[in-house]
Amino acid sequence: MRLRTSDVVAISEARARLTELAEEVVDGGAEKVLTKNGASYVAIVDARKLDYYHDLEEEHACLVLLGEAETGLQQILAGQRISATDLTQALSD
């Protein structure tokens, strides 16, 4: 989704228009970026969309872990890893 200039609002203005801005986000599908001293500060996003973003983040983390597990298994099969017992013994020598 493209951010329009009308979706960037000073936080001081947002205080007076919060209900209106929230309705634009929920009803119109817009996202609002609130600025403080001219710089991006926070965003107003539909709560359902925020839940979706969190779900995507969790799914990405799971995919990264699966990738790491696959790499580890490939290294084990290639003989590039040692057992925990062998590691413990090597560290104690």
Describe this structure in words.
The protein has 2 domains: 1-45, YefM-like domain (YefM-like fold, 3-Layer(aba) Sandwich), CATH 3.40.1620; 47-93, no CATH class. The protein is built from 3 helices and 3 strands, in the order E-H-E-E-H-H. The chain has helices at 11-28, 47-77, 84-92; strands spanning 8-10, 32-36, 39-44. The mean pLDDT is 92. The protein has a 3-stranded mixed β-sheet with strand order 1-2-3, with helices on one face. By secondary structure, it is an alpha+beta fold. It is elongated, with a radius of gyration of 24 Å. A hairpin with a 2-residue loop joins strand 2 (32-36) and strand 3 (39-44).
Question: How are the elements arranged and paired?
Answer:
Blueprint: E1 8-10, H1 11-28, E2 32-36, E3 39-44, H2 47-77, H3 84-92
Parallel strand pairs: 1-2
Antiparallel strand pairs: 2-3
Mean pLDDT across every amino acid position: 92
Reported for the largest beta sheet, the result is: 3 strands, mixed
Distance between the termini: 59 Å
Rg result = 24 Å
Unreliable stretches (pLDDT < 50, length at least 5) are none
Sheet-strand content, in percent, reads 15-25%
Tally of individual helices = 3
| H-E string | EHEEHH
Give the overall shape, derived from the CA principal axes: elongated
The helix fraction, in percent, is 55-70%
In spatial order, strands of the major sheet run 1-2-3
Structural class, judged by helices and strands? alpha+beta
Query: How many domains is the backbone divided into?
Result: 2
Please give the number of β-strands.
3
Keywords summarizing the entry:
93 residues, alpha+beta, YefM-like fold, 2 domains
